[in-house]
Amino acid sequence: MKSDKDWRLGSMGDMQILPGSRHRPPMKKPMWIIVLVLFVCVFLIIAYMYPPQSSSSACYIFSSRGCKRFSDWLPPAPAREYTDEEIASRVVIKDILTSPPVVSKKSKIAFMFLSPGSLPLEKLWDNFFQGHEGKFSVYVHASKSKPVHVSRYFVNRDIRSGQVVWGKISMVDAERRILATALQDPDNQHFVSLSDSCVPLYHFDYIYNYLMHTNISYVDCFKDPGPHGNGRYSDRMLPEVEVKDFRKGAQWFSMKRQHAVIVMADCLYYSKFRAYCQPGLEGKNCIADEHYLPTFFQIVDPGGIANWSVTHADWSERKWHPKSYRDHDVTYELLKNITSVDVSVHVTSDEKKEVQSWPCLWNGIQKPCYLFARKFTPETLDKLLHLFSNYSTPWT
């Protein structure tokens, strides 16, 4: 027994030679975790800066380019509730647009001239119309003085006119007034608005076929986020006219009969522009004729318009009005350059000066954008008559 005890004590004694109870130092983080984190960070940075050039159908987790955003996976936000006036307006417009077009055995183009008085280039238009009787109608809205006509095609074609003030809703009123008059003739199937300074760029048959054999309207329409675009918008147009639909464009249009009818049927959107789009209102210079039709069609039938005007104007001088062509400007090269343009270009009015461009497509085929051009001064008449003799088109 004693020997056993001695052994145990000896054992205990042996144990006492070991160090006393030790305190383990804090555990160091393994280096591999730090390396892994650094590697992932570097990978994410490189992946974000240099995303792979894959097709748009492939989704890349580190880049939104070519991928659906998270918001795209969410259910669409509920549409706002339309007012009674909007419902009534949309029903009428939809019914007109979905009705089969009226077929006429002798379809005509209505040439609608908006002018202060006489048309200084009327003789040029007389040459243009000769030999094509039965394919066109002429209407003249003279806002200041009764015109004196030199062409038989213009005699007795003046309509009841009203005063027009630049920049105000009266310009839209004039467009609607002349459009309503032209719609009274059931054979008029296409409607072209023109100024007293406009000239045709092609012979009659080319323009007739261009307009009659397409089912869209040529209404200029683009989104301008700058001060001369959305900067003119007033939220007092809500709820019917939202800023996301506010558009800008040149006032000179060419539209098919169905679109002309819905313009005349519209009271709702027109009343908003009449009340809240005018120079000086709320410190803004909203020009109704530059915004009403583009915004109206953006809301009711955006796919039915070409988004460019078939009437050319040179805005390179960056003024309130386009460049005026004088006698020394009118050359073969000028006309050739205008008729060779087949891409529509718009520039935003903000600091970015973003250039928006798209091809001018006629039934899916890229063609020249412009059939008419302005502003040609009265002194250019003789030179234009010489260049357009017989209305051949050597520059095409």
TrEMBL record:
The keyword Membrane is annotated on this UniProt entry: yes
Lineage, broadest ranks: Eukaryota, Viridiplantae, Streptophyta, Embryophyta, Tracheophyta
InterPro entries (UniProt xref): BC10-like (IPR044174), Glyco_trans_14 (IPR003406)
GO cellular component, one term: membrane
Topology versus the membrane: Single-pass type II membrane protein
Alphabetical keyword list: Glycoprotein, Glycosyltransferase, Membrane, Transferase, Transmembrane, Transmembrane helix
Residues spanning the membrane: 31-50
Descriptive protein name: Core-2/I-branching enzyme
Tagged with keyword Plastid: no
Organism: Medicago truncatula
Intracellular or extracellular location(s): Membrane
MF-aspect GO terms: glycosyltransferase activity
Main location: membrane
Matches recorded under Pfam families: Branch
